[in-house]
Every structure is written in structure tokens, then in C-alpha cells.
């Protein structure tokens, strides 16, 4: 069952990539934020080109590709508990990306059964151009209450450490983390509803 | 919002996502069964002649069928919750309960004179069966769907159907303790119908609430 021929990629570079992703995710689950950031950053170009190809195949423009990328990143984050740690991460990410792509195309009125390639086979787009979602930050954060907005903004856009945010808001670090987690869930719901 | 900003927020939230889904499913199934048992004991209870019924062939066989439903479908729940495995479920095991019923129906038709077939099929509890199994399914179906919501089922309708099937199997196991219609003809018609109702309603619910 768990041993998949599906997980054998022919190209050694792809195999190395898969292995690196798997190790980064294992570290992330142990709580290593740096590894997690590195993983998500490394996955993003592949997710982006995968979403682009899906959109092209059904004749949709590029405007909302970054929305799909961000939605997929949120799903990877919120559903990481469904990854079997004894298996390679690549096929799992591909399955998440495929579901999110099909789901977002369906919501845009394109119901298609898209076959997409394994993520590791997807060539990264040379320069990982800075992607920005179609929805602007204000409207995305609109689903959060003021404190949640402040926390998300300080940590993500301003890049402040959790401790600094906690001190500023007079909260414990744990409370900030809990609030952040809750906010990310709300953002994911917001994407699905938006 | 910039993708790099989002990644910054996500990385701060690193750590284990959630505890084992397998454990969660088993916990939900057990919790659902316990609540169902409580409702069952308070509302109908087992039949008074259960002591002698156990010594027959037909009564115990009902549990072979209902437990076959539970144990053939339950392992698929865990697979269904994974985005990688949910697309290619080994569904062959699900044929076990239908095959057992089919076999029992053939044996029953061979052993009963034809003029008793109809009465055995209609029995005396058909409506109760159709009402009780769906109602007794509710606690387990709800608990299993909540567990499934933690997962990442790529086929939400099928995921809902599986939750319903397991819940219906649990419900039918309890209901069978009460029902004194033991003929495989009765089981084949009314239990099947009741399980099908629960499964299709759950599929429809799954299609709505199990998307992510």
C-alpha cells in the first residue's frame, strides 16, 4: 500500500527535490519555522506553474492564479496532519494542489477533470516572481477581527517575531500563536467563500 | 496579499498539525457506538427471547452481515481522509456483506417452502427497521463526519457515504438485537434499504460539508 511506484521519479534532480521537501516538512512538524518557510517558499514556484497550466487548459486568464497558489499553501498548512510521515511529501502536495485547482476551477464555473503532473516534475519558473493575490490584503483580512488583523499583519507583512507582537498587545506568546492559527483557518474559509 | 507574506505567517504556525487521524476515527466510531447503545437500550432494548435466539442459525447470522459492513468499510475511512489514497480506494472488501446476504438468501429459499417466502420477507417490523436504523445511525454518522472534516478527502460525497455506511452498520448491529425478524429475506430487503437510505443521505451531506 504505502510503497508506491508512483513515488519513483526517474530524474535524480527531482528525486533529490522530493527528499529535501520531505525532510523539511519533518523538521517543520517538529516546530522548525525556518525549515517550514524554506519548504513553502520552495514549493511555491512549482505550485504556481501547476496552477497556471491548469488555468490555461480551461482557457482562463492568469489574474487569479496567485489566489489558487495561496489557497493551496493554506490547505497544505491546515491539512498537514493527513500526510503520512513515512512517505514522500511530493505526491501528497500534488494531491492537495490538484484538489484545490479543480475546486477553484469549479467555483469559477469550469468543471473539468484535470490531469496534472506530479509536482516534482513541474519545472520551477526561473525567477520566482513575487506573487500577489488578486484580492487585496484589506479585503482578505476583512474576515478577521481587529486583534487578529493586527497579529497577522505584524507577523506576515512587518515580519515581527511572535514575542514582539505578544509584548505589544499584552498577550502571551501562546495566545498570539493560537490567534494566528485561528486567523489562518478563517483566511482559508474566506478564500473558499470569496 | 503577497504570497511571501502569507508564507511568513504560515511558517510561524509550524508544528504538528493534529493528532493521528486513525485514532480520531476509531475514537469517533467507539463514541458513536456508545451513544447508539445508550439510545438503543433506552428506546427499544433487546428482544426478550434473546437467550434462545442466540442458539439459532438465523439470528447470529444477522450480526455476521452487519459487522461485515462495519469492518469492511471502516478501514476505508482512514484512507479516504488522505488526499493521496482517497482517489484509489480498494473497494473490493465492500462486496463482503452483499455476498454474505446473497448466499444466505439462496440458502433460505432452498430451505423454506415457497408459500412462506412472502411472509418471511415482509416480517412484522419492516417500518420499525426503516425508521430505527437511520435514527440509530445519527450519532456515529455525526461523529465520523466530524473526524472526516479533519481529513482531506478528495471525494467529499464518497467520504460522506462511507461515514454513513459505517454508521449504518453500527446502527443495524444494535437494531438486530431487538428485531425478531431473522430471515435473510427480511434482512436482504429491509436492512439493505435502511442502510442505503443512510448511505445516500450521508453522501449528500458529505458533498456539502466535507469540502475543504
- In helices, the fraction of residues of chain A equals 55-70%
How much of the sequence lies in strands of chain A comes to under 5%
Give the beta-strand count of chain A. Answer: 0
How many angstroms does the end-to-end distance of chain A come to?
38 Å
Number of DSSP-assigned strands of chain B:
0
Largest sheet of chain A: none
Helix content class of chain B = over 70%
Question: Helices and strands of chain B: which structural class?
Answer: mainly alpha
The succession of helices and strands of chain B, N to C, reads HHHHHHHHH
Question: So what's the overall shape of chain A?
Answer: globular
Strand composition percent of chain B: under 5%
Query: Looking at the chains present, what oligomeric state does this protein adopt?
Result: heterodimer
TL;DR?
Chain A is mainly α and 194 residues long. Helix content of chain A is 63%, strand content 0%. Chain A is built from eight helices and no strands.
Amino acid at each position: 500500500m504505502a510503497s508506491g511506484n508512483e513515488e519513483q521519479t526517474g530524474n535524480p534532480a527531482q528525486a533529490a527535490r522530493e527528499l529535501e521537501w520531505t525532510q523539511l516538512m519533518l523538521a517543520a512538524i517538529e516546530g522548525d519555522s525556518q525549515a517550514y518557510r524554506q519548504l513553502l517558499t520552495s514549493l511555491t514556484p512549482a505550485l504556481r506553474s501547476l496552477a497556471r497550466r491548469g488555468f490555461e487548459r480551461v482557457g482562463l486568464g492568469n489574474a487569479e492564479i496567485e489566489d489558487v497558489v495561496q489557497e493551496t499553501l493554506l490547505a497544505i498548512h491546515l491539512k498537514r496532519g493527513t500526510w503520512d510521515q513515512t512517505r514522500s511529501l511530493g505526491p501528497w502536495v500534488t494531491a492537495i494542489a490538484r484538489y484545490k485547482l479543480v475546486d477553484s476551477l469549479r467555483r469559477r464555473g469550469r468543471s473539468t477533470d484535470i490531469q496534472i503532473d506530479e509536482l516534482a516534475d513541474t519545472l520551477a519558473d526561473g525567477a520566482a516572481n513575487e506573487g500577489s493575490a488578486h484580492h487585496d490584503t484589506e479585503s482578505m483580512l476583512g474576515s478577521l477581527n481587529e486583534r487578529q488583523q493586527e497579529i497577522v499583519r505584524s507577523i506576515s507583512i512587518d515580519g515581527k517575531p511572535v514575542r514582539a507582537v505578544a509584548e505589544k498587545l499584552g498577550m502571551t506568546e501562546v495566545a498570539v500563536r493560537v490567534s494566528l492559527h485561528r486567523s489562518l483557518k478563517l483566511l482559508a474559509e474566506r478564500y473558499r467563500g470569496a | 496579499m503577497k504570497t511571501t507574506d502569507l508564507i511568513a505567517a504560515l511558517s510561524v504556525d509550524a508544528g504538528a498539525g493534529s493528532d493521528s487521524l486513525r485514532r480520531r476515527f476509531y475514537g469517533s466510531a467507539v463514541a458513536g457506538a456508545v451513544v447508539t447503545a445508550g439510545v438503543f437500550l433506552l428506546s427499544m432494548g433487546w428482544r426478550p427471547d434473546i437467550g434462545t435466539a442466540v442458539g439459532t442459525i438465523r439470528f447470529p447470522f444477522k450480526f455476521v452481515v452487519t459487522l461485515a459492513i462495519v469492518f469492511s468499510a471502516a478501514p476505508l475511512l482512514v484512507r479516504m481522509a488522505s488526499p493521496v489514497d482517497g482517489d484509489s480506494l480498494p473497494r473490493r472488501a465492500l462486496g463482503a456483506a452483499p455476498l454474505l446476504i446473497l448466499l444466505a438468501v439462496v440458502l433460505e429459499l432452498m430451505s423454506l417452502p415457497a408459500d412462506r417466502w412472502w411472509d418471511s420477507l415482509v416480517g412484522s417490523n419492516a417500518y420499525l427497521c426503516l425508521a430505527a436504523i437511520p435514527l440509530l445511525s445519527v450519532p456515529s454518522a455525526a461523529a465520523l463526519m466530524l473526524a472526516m472534516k479533519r481529513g482531506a478527502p478528495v471525494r467529499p460525497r464518497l467520504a460522506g457515504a462511507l461515514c454513513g455506511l459505517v454508521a449504518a452498520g453500527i446502527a443495524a448491529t444494535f437494531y438486530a438485537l431487538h428485531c425478531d425478524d431473522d430471515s435473510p429475506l427480511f434482512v436482504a430487503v429491509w436492512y439493505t434499504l435502511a442502510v442505503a437510505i443512510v448511505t445516500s443521505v450521508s453522501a449528500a451531506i458529505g458533498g456539502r460539508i466535507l469540502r475543504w
